[in-house]
């Protein structure tokens, strides 16, 4: 094999989890030219890669698929890491042109059993599922343990895509307040839409800095690299901090690390969760709480603060 096309358009966290797998593949197969096909906003995740990786940014919701495949050229193999109809169209076209194709196996049945309380065994990590796709194309990959940084300061990213994954914001503000009272430097991360709320926290408490909406992905990852520890939800920021090599304490509510989406290289011992019988109720956290109170996130702010301080002092 000389040319490999890898497809994964979204979401940010899933693409971030793919990045270290492709880095390992590129390093272990330097003779293979790898093209990563994804949304343009994912480019920063592949900015510091081996020379045999090329990023190709496309927006399949705005660009006709026939135009996308026409500009791609030909490939010996296609790794469909997404498994949606848009990637099916592209891989089908490439198969007609002679490419060998492998598609990710998402384990939907096992996820159903996990989220309905019928199975409690951890599912394979998504990075292993990505690696399995490459193995079926004749490129078995050894995934290295990531090198962790040892910086200063505490990062906090309080938001996630779904409410079932967000620790109550009034309690998170209390976490920020308690860390501030202890003289700890806190750095807040979020989007432009989340900036106004985080600005109020930074203005209210000393030693608190808000970076929300100020940097591109590459800049955020660089700032995370300089931290001692990050506190996140099950969110894209967990995966960005993992790419930065920063230790992450992650809070889990409607979702669960057993579904296979823990940050790359992070430790299960750093997951903060109550392990209620109803957890997880979904893989991605989008389903409403059956009790309407999200009791899975009823964790005292003092518990989070003590875990953070302990991680900083380790």
Looking at the overall shape, the CATH architecture of the largest domain is 3-Layer(aba) Sandwich
Sequence of secondary-structure elements: EHEEHEHEHHEHEHEHEHEEH
- Gap between N and C termini, in Å? 46 Å
- Supply Rg: 20 Å
CATH topology of the largest domain, what is it called? Rossmann fold
Return the CATH class of the largest domain: Alpha Beta
Mean pLDDT: 96
- The portion of residues forming beta strands comes to 5-15%
Write out the strand line-up for the largest beta sheet, numbering strands in chain order. 8-7-6-9-10-11
Low-confidence runs: none
- Structural class designation: alpha/beta
Question: Helix content range of the residues, please?
Answer: 25-40%
Q: Give a quick account of the main beta sheet: strands, pairing sense, barrel closure.
A: 6 strands, parallel
Number of helical segments?
A: 10
Q: Would you report the number of β strands?
A: 11
Shape: globular
CATH superfamily of the largest domain: Glycogen Phosphorylase B
The total domain count is 2
Topology:
Layout: E1 3-7, H1 12-28, E2 33-38, E3 53-57, H2 65-72, E4 77-80, H3 85-96, E5 100-103, H4 108-115, H5 126-136, E6 154-157, H6 169-181, E7 186-188, H7 195-204, E8 208-210, H8 217-225, E9 229-233, H9 236-243, E10 247-251, E11 271-272, H10 301-313
Parallel strand pairs: 1-2, 1-4, 2-3, 4-5, 6-7, 6-9, 7-8, 9-10, 10-11
Helix pairs in contact: 1-5, 1-9, 2-3, 6-10
């Amino acid at each position: 094999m000389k040319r490999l096309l890898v497809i994964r358009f979204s979401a940010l966290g899933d693409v971030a989890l793919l990045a270290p797998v492709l880095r390992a593949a590129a390093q272990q197969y330097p003779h293979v030219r790898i093209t990563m096909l994804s949304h343009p906003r994912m480019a920063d995740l592949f900015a510091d890669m081996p020379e045999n990786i090329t990023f190709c940014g496309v927006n399949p919701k705005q660009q006709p698929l026939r135009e996308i495949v026409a500009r791609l050229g030909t490939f010996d193999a296609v790794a469909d890491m997404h498994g949606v109809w848009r990637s099916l169209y592209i891989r089908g076209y490439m198969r007609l042109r002679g490419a060998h194709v492998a598609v990710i196996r998402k384990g939907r049945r096992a996820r159903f059993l996990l989220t309905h309380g019928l199975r409690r065994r951890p599912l394979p990590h998504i990075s292993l599922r990505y690696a399995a796709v490459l193995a079926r194309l004749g490129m078995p990959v050894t995934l290295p343990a990531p090198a962790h940084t040892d910086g200063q300061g505490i990062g906090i990213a309080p938001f996630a895509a779904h409410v079932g994954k967000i620790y109550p914001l009034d309690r998170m503000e209390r976490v920020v307040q308690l860390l501030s009272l202890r003289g700890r430097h806190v750095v807040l991360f979020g989007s432009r839409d989340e900036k106004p709320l985080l600005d109020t926290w930074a203005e209210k408490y000393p030693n608190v800095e808000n970076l929300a909406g100020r940097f591109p992905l590459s800049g955020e990852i660089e700032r995370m690299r300089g931290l001692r520890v990050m506190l996140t939800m099950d969110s894209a920021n967990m995966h960005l901090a993992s790419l930065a090599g920063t230790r992450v304490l992650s809070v889990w509510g409607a979702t669960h690390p057993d579904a296979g989406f823990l940050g790359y290289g992070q430790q299960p011992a750093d997951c903060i969760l109550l392990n209620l019988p109803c957890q997880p109720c979904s893989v991605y956290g989008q389903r409403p709480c059956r009790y309407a109170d999200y009791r899975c996130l009823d964790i005292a702010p003092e518990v989070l603060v003590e875990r953070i301080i302990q991680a900083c002092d380790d």
